[in-house]
Amino acid sequence: MDTSNQEQSSPINRSVGDSASPVNIFDKAIAINIDKELELSLGDEELGSEDEALEGDTHTTTQTVVEEADADDGLDAFRKKKRIKKSVAWDDFKDVEVGHQKILMSECIHCHAKFKKTKTSTTSSLLRHRKSCAIRLQKLKKATQQTKINFPSADSAKASQTYLHSGRFDMAVMREATAEWVLMHEHPFSIVEEEGFNLMQKRGMPEWQRISRTMNKNDCTSVYEREKTKLKNQLKKVKKISLTTDLWKSKNQKNEYMVITGHWIDSNWRLQKWVLNFVHVPPPRRGIQIADAIFKCLTDWGIESKIYTVSVDNASNNDSALRCLKDTFSRNKCLLAKGKLFHVRCCAHILNLMVQDGLNQIKEIVGTIRDSVEFINKTDGRRLQFVEIVRQLQLPEKILIYDCKTRWNSTYEMLTCALEFQDVFPRYRDREPNYDFCPTLEDWEKVTKVCNILKVFWTATHVISGSDYPTANLYLNEVCRIKVLLDSKVDDEDDFVRSMVQKMKLKFDKYWGECNLLMSIAAILDPRCKMRVINYCFPLLYPPHEVQSNIGKVRQALYDLYDEYVEIHVSGQSGSSSQLLVGNDHPTKSSSSASSSVSHVSGMSEFLTHIATVESVQPIKNELDTYFEDGLLTAADDSTVDIVNLDALKWWKDTTKYKILPKMAADILAIPISTVASEVIFSAGTRIGVVRYTG
Q1: What is the pLDDT of residues 474-489, one digit of tens each?
Q2: How far apart are CA 98 and CA 278, in angstroms?
Q3: Where is the HAT C-terminal dimerisation domain (predicted)?
Q4: What angle do CA 567, 613, 623 make, to 5 degrees?
Q5: DSSP strand E in 99-253: where?
Q6: How many C-beta atoms lie closer than 10 Å to residue 673's C-beta?
Q7: Sheet of 256-265, strands arranged across
Q8: How far apart are CA 422 and CA 439, in angstroms?
Q9: What is the arrangement of strands in the sheet containing 103-108, beginning at the earlier edge strand?
Q10: Contact 472/519 with Cβ under 8 angstroms?
Q11: 592 has a pLDDT exceeding 80
């Protein structure tokens, strides 16, 4: 970030840095304009004919070129320099000098990995690293996600087509674009009244008219309403929608807000996530109040009959709220599977509860490490002294990272990073007299034990949240790995480990002791797993006497759900077939008004109507049976498919063997297994009315 800021400010620095005393950049610009005006005031007296100009002496020509160059100095500083290095690799690399010999190397600006420069200056190794750099890929993911309001990107083809115009200036269009700009970057409404903003606009568009903050606020509201109307029209075409909701309290204002996010698969088989409401919930925030707020939001969007599931955390008021909503939707017969899948408990929240039991075992040690990281990073001198010891011990040069106290995964990352430098901290204490809270050797041993257990939880969290496609089908295997780990450590010889794991296992049994239908059905609809996944996982998750009964429950729920989709499909087919007869009627035109109302149906129309009814009502074979008989999808079936990172939703989109099962799979895979999509709204930079994440 610091480098980019320096690069952005360097043109201004260059334009005024040659002077011995500080120069105001606007004064210099005025001086340039005066020089130009004097030059123009000479008129044609200074200019001879074309022949005279060609026959003039060299000194005059050179002097003219120098004067023109001097006159353009003020503008050249703002012009973009031509790039010498054309490879895209240099977007992510820079040249640095390493060591006392100042060997020139190429350094990744993201992870700071260094590569030797070849004699021919090839960039093959840089391009390979660019594709696999974990930090760069994470940044790209964050940039593509959490996009505010459905605006096209500036360099997209859609943008170039949308904004092509005749060249005439239209202030109404500019006001709309300004409102979109303010919303996209969350600028204050008052930014349009700033002098610099209006000066910039005037220079590029002399016809520009000032906009007040009140006008900009009204324009932003208009943009919001426009986007909301678009979304409403889109929701009319959606059959099933899953929700996530979360509550957040402001420490400063003491206000509590609720966000409701909708998830569904659109007609192009893309997972959509949109914030539907962001509302203040007054105290006491009981379950009935939460249920009323959710139902009011659904009614406003016209989707109260399309709700499939609602994902919430494990707060007691959420349980009572969903009981109220389930009763309401059940009376209207809106819920599939008799509402068995309606209430989804946030798996990430359950993991967090278990992890906190582990971190509480080393609460004081975590505080000591956090204070150490803050102390060392506070000044450049302390950091340099720490880095010097790291180099002496020939350890990898990494930056000590802070953690977010409310995010256990960031605390885990802080601890694992500090563990790599556990030999550095005592040596640093010997050099720094003010550093007297260094963790002991026993502390580091406890941290190591905790991190070895939390590693499985961290991996599970990243497997689920680190993908751009639906991941409900992945969670059963990760939960199974956690259960196996806890079972192996619950009777550990180490008292510290045994005490910690026993507390974590109690949480696991409380929330996942019973069979989880959603996780199981989603895993079965993964073509790599099918029924084999529960035959493998259930003996590891449940006692022997419960395994077969739980497998039977999942299988029965799966077939019952499929039968409901068959019924929906048949009713849709019968509705279209009833229209087929009307659609193929060809009235015979006649001069008689009586005969004009008589329609004639062809024999082919009657036959096609019969076939449509028979085929829809009497399917040849149950698609679930066919799906299970086909066997598992393996790499041998298609070498071009990445089996490990398979997008199950895309597989169902591309398959042509089934008619009903893909619709059911799409609805199931769209169900969010956690409330992370709603929780991130409370992070800085994403608080806005209608927000689009993907699609």
Answers
A1: 999 999 999 999 999 9
A2: 51
A3: 623-687
A4: 45
A5: 103-108, 114-116, 241-249
A6: 26
A7: 271-280, 256-265, 241-249, 307-312, 343-345
A8: 8
A9: 93-98, 103-108, 114-116
A10: yes
A11: no
